[in-house]
Amino acid sequence: MGKNKLKKFRDMETIDFVFQYPFAVLKEEGFPLKEKWRSTFFKNNNPIVLELGCGKGEYTVGLARRFPDRNYIGVDIKGARMWTGACQARDEKLGNVAFLRTDIELIDHFFAPGEVDEIWVTFADPQMKKVRKRLTGTRFLSLYRHILTPGGLIHLKTDSPFLYTYTRLMARHNSIPVEIDTDDLYNGDGALTGPILDIKTFYEQQWLDRGLTIKYLRMRLPAQGQLTEPEADIEPDTYRSFSRGWIQCPDEMARRTADTGNQTL
Length: 265
Ligand SMILES: C[S@@+](CC[C@H](N)C(=O)[O-])C[C@H]1O[C@@H](n2cnc3c(N)ncnc32)[C@H](O)[C@@H]1O
Prior knowledge:
Layout: H1 3-14, E1 18-20, H2 23-29, H3 37-42, E2 48-52, H4 58-66, E3 71-76, H5 79-91, E4 97-101, E5 116-122, H6 138-147, E6 148-158, H7 161-173, E7 178-182, H8 195-198, H9 202-209, E8 215-221, H10 240-248, H11 250-260
Parallel strand pairs: 1-4, 2-3, 2-5, 3-4, 5-6
Antiparallel strand pairs: 6-8, 7-8
Bound molecules: S-adenosylmethionine.
Residues 53-55, 76-78, 81, 103-105, 122-125, 201-204 line the site of S-adenosylmethionine.
């Protein structure tokens, strides 16, 4: 592991609003703040909002700055990414932020039923081949139901036509009320304002730089009713694996972009 990453991990251990729990400890002892996030940690009765797959935590920190009367928790498995948001929140002394390093699949170990009011899913991998891994699939929606207040909000912001189409179909198929739906957030009719437009995540900025449109859905997850997968053939995204190469190898991406004149986007 690189020195830089190790330093980030060490920093994270010193930040008292970063929680990292090995599964063995979680299983043995449980998570001490479960059901007590408001009373013991935030020490207020304000709503709790999660950003799942938060990466550097742009929504977690950006929303916390704007809405001091709400509590924000960024969740990701990658500690070195969350370090950025955790350091910002520490340096700005934001009292309404926490970060949780865990697999989202374990999220109901950390929150009691109804303890969470809202969930943001920001630029998740569409998981085109693995339905079970899709953060807006039935498996995860059922998990969110365990912790969300009835009718709690779910926000999806994505570059992926596949994930957007899938989630819309999912909502329609399961009669999940959708309150906002746009396939081109930044070139809409101007009716939308606020943090969905103002805050841009690390990945989002990369997609925007490549000329991709950003899609946004806001829905309310009912507490009851069976959730089933929609049956439909959804056209796969064509750019995803290319983009991963870009993110990991900027030089190679620059070369390919020059070669293709962006034709592959
Ligand atoms: C494409 S990145 C997006 C990061 C950030 N939201 C953004 O827009 O810049 C997806 C993030 O989700 C995290 N992630 C994916 N699946 C996860 C899981 N099951 N549990 C925890 N984190 C997960 C990854 O570690 C990664 O940081």
